[in-house]
């Protein structure tokens, strides 16, 4: 089974107009405050967590289908979502590696 990555949340809120919380913990209206920026590592970690979750869901749906608890459509949807998440993660990884290699080839 796929194990989860712990301690990392989602980079995007489910509601784009939700309240913004400042460093003091006070809620502000969406237009009044600026959300604190996330680091690149946090964003990549969040994407990895989402991908692992998607893979776990597809695995769970597959087991449910074997037990007769899920329809074929649900399994196919879950597997397609997992495949798309995995392909996205691989593409981003390739871009990051390519960018790193380009930086290492730069002359100082």
Brief overview:
The chain has about 110 residues and is mainly alpha-helical. It has helices spanning about 40-65, 70-105; strands at about 20, 25-30.
Please characterize this protein's 3D structure.
The longest helix has 34 residues, at 72-105. With 108 residues, the protein is mainly α. The model is unreliable at 4-25 and 27-31 (pLDDT under 50). The protein starts with 19 loop residues before the first strand and ends with a helix. The protein has helices spanning 40-66, 72-105, and strands at 20-21, 27-28. It has a domain at 38-105. The protein contains 2 helices and 2 strands; from the N terminus they run ββαα. Helices cover 56% and strands 4% of the residues.
The proportion of strand residues reads under 5%
Rg result: 19 Å
**Biggest sheet statistics:** 2 strands, antiparallel
The helix count comes to 2
N-end to C-end Cα span: 46 Å
Structural class of the secondary elements? mainly alpha
Mean pLDDT: 77
* Number of beta strands: 2
Which consecutive residue ranges, at least 5 long each, have pLDDT under 50?
4-25, 27-31
Q: What is the molecular shape? A: elongated
Helix % is 55-70%
Give, in spatial order, the strands making up the sheet with the most strands: 1-2
| SSE pattern | EEHH
Write the layout of secondary structure elements.
Blueprint: E1 20-21, E2 27-28, H1 40-66, H2 72-105
Antiparallel strand pairs: 1-2
Helix pairs in contact: 1-2
Descriptors for this entry?
single chain; two-stranded antiparallel sheet; elongated; mainly alpha
């Amino acid at each position: 089974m796929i194990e989860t990555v712990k301690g990392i949340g989602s980079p995007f809120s489910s509601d784009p107009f939700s309240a913004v919380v400042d460093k003091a913990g006070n809620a502000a209206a969406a237009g009044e405050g600026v959300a604190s920026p996330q680091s690149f590592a946090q964003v990549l970690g969040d994407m990895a967590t989402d991908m692992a979750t998607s893979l776990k869901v597809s695995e769970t749906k597959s087991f449910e289908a074997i037990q007769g608890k899920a329809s074929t459509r649900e399994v196919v949807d879950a597997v397609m979502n997992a495949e798309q998440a995995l392909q996205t993660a691989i593409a981003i990884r390739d871009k990051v590696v390519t960018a790193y290699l380009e930086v290492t080839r730069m002359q100082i």
